[in-house]
Every structure is written in structure tokens, then in C-alpha cells.
Amino acid sequence: MVSWDGSQGNDAAEEPTISAEQERRERELTERVVDSFEGTPDPRLRVVMQALTRHLHAFIREVRLSEQEWQAGIEFLTRAGHITDDRRQEFILLSDVLGASMQTIAVANPAQGAATEATVFGPFFVEGSPHIALGGRIAHAAAGEPCWVSGTVSGTDGTPVAGARIEVWQADAEGFYDVQYPGEHLDGRGHMFTDSEGAYRFWGLTPTPYPIPHDGPVGDLLEATGRSPVRAAHLHFMVTAPGHRTLVTHIFDADDPQLALGDCVFGVKDSLIERFDRQPAGTPTPDGRDLGDNTWSRVHFDIVLAAEHL
Ligand code: BEZ
Ligand code: FE
């Protein structure tokens, strides 16, 4: 087998035959490393490091990892480190394309009644987004079709949550977030608070599919494995309210053809697919905003927050 970095390796499909002595040596090494963590003062760290050791060693043994492949893995991680800075986070991308982010989210957000499902955070959230009044705009210079987004925030018992903080962020029609452009200008993001009835509303942009940054090692990995870097069109939300579990999620566009082709970070859940109703040019807007000759869309998304502690 030739691996993605061009080096020769073993074909994991062929069952390697290992002598009893070889098997004993490999298992003995694993146990020694597991035992080395036995004295870890933090019990949780001990559990995590011992399980990590067992699974990592099992992986190496299962694929009969060659030394060239191990070296290629180290070089891959080194490249990921070198390309990472305050604006580019290659390790999050790696976790995302491996489904590790979504698996962690699944474990950390157990189902609770009608609570809205969580999905991937992604690398493009930034602290310090502008506050916008209800009904305000999050996109200013960012290109795209205006989209009226409205809904409510409630608890699992249906009680409206007033004063919930809603952070929203999205890519523009070119498929880029503000932080991917040079300069410090924030656009396509903002936060607002629900009113006394738990309602929210704002103008965003109709989301479009876009590729995750794929000019680095994660992009090379996707290319070598025949996978697409494209994310289904979505709008990000993070909702926080006292007494409730913080919700990080998106909504996806039911009419997006990319939904059928897949989302490169496995973030789509059926319960998060919403209809973005396209409005012909000239259709009156809910707040009387004059959009001239532009088409626009509207979507309704009711958010249910899980209780923080049951
Ligand atoms: C995002 O949706 O912003 C995103 C998620 C995972 C990887 C890259 C981008
Ligand atoms: Fe995104």
C-alpha cells in the first residue's frame, strides 16, 4: 500500500501474522505505559491518559503502523502547528473532519426532551461581536441575500426564556467569514437578547455552502482521501441563559443541494434543517425595510434550551 504521503506501508486489510512472542512484547509495552500513569494525582486525567494509551497502541498495532507512516503523522501535526495562529486553527479543523468534534458534542449534550440539538462550533466564533437591537442587521459590508431570521427561546417545559443571549455568526456569499479577510473589521456576526416573551429577530444573510480552509494539511488529507471540503449552508447560533445548558448549534437550509452531498464535518442533524422561504423582489419585509430590487428570504427557528442540571 502507498499511503497518502507517498510512503510505503502495510495494507491493514491483510491480516498480519504475529508470533506469540511478538504479541507478548507489544502488549507488555502497552501495559507498562498504562501503568506509568497510575500515580496521576488527578483521577480524571489518569482515566483519560490510560484509555488514550490503550486506544493509541491498539490503533498502531491494528494497522501495523510503519515507521515512515509514524513520521508522516508527526510531519502532518507539525504542519498543522505551523499554520495555526490567532486566525487559523488547523487542529480544530482536523478534529472536525475526523468527526471527533461531533462525537465530543454528542457525548457532552445528552438528549433532553425537546431540547434543540447541538452541532459543531467551528473555528470562526470570535469574542466581542457587536450588540444588535432586536430586528437589527448582522451583515453590513458582507455580501449576500438578506434573510429575516426570527424565533423564540424556551425551556424544555415550554416556558419562554427572556434575556437569553444569542450569538450568531455566518459566512458571506463568497463563503468567507470576516476573520478570513485581512484587517480587524467584524461583519456577519452579532449578539442580541431575547425579549420578555423569549422572542428574537434579526437580519442575516441567506447562507450558502462553502469550503472549510483547505490550503493546509487538513485540506491535503481530504484530497488524499477523496473527500470534499464543503460544508452545507448554515447559520451559527450560540445561546446562553442562566440555569440552562449553553447551546451551540446551526440551522441548515432545507433547499441546499449540498445536504444530499454531505457536510465535511458531519454537523448536519435532521432536526436542524429549516426552510428558508425565498421571497421575490418587492415582497414587503416584516419590519418595513426597503430592499429595493433585491430578493430576500425568511426562516423561523424556535430554540429549546436543556436545563443545566436535571
Ligand atoms: C464552520 O462552520 O464555521 C466550520 C466548522 C468546522 C470547520 C470549519 C468551519
Ligand atoms: Fe460555519
Automatic annotation (TrEMBL):
**Keyword DNA-binding applies:** no
Alphabetically sorted, this entry's keywords are: Dioxygenase, Iron, Metal-binding, Oxidoreductase
Where do the record's region annotations for Disordered lie? 1-33
Q: Please name the Pfam families in this protein's record.
A: Dioxygenase_C, Dioxygenase_N
InterPro entries in UniProt: Catechol_dOase_N (IPR007535), Intradiol_dOase_C (IPR000627), Intradiol_dOase_core (IPR015889), Intradiol_RC_Dioxygenase (IPR050770)
Signal sequence, renumbered to the chain: none
The residue ranges of the Intradiol ring-cleavage dioxygenases domain are 149-177
Q: Where is the composition biased (Basic and acidic residues)?
A: 21-33
The UniProt entry's sequence similarity note says:
Belongs to the intradiol ring-cleavage dioxygenase family.
Recorded protein name is Dioxygenase
